Amino acid sequence: MYCTSKAARDMLFQVLALEDPDVRVLNYSPGPIDTELFTDLKTNLGNLEMRQALVELVENKNLLSVETTVSTLMNILEEDAFKSGSHIDYFDVNKLDKLL
Fold it and tell me: What is the pTM of this model?
């Protein structure tokens, strides 16, 4: 369901951008964030392979703080250089010029 909802959101934003050019929309993927939900999943997820992947994110120091990813999003919005309806991932921000 999670992947389906992400794909639906992506298509919705693309359609909104095309059908109403006065509305600016951005599909932002914030990366893995250190939240209570993440901690719960890392501890209680039934799929052991996925749980191990979450543990490795922490061990490899690849987990982002809320402040870090929100700061990146705010910079993207303030620069206002993205194409409406586009998808930008936290880890692709340095490649933003390729998305224009």
Answer: 0.78
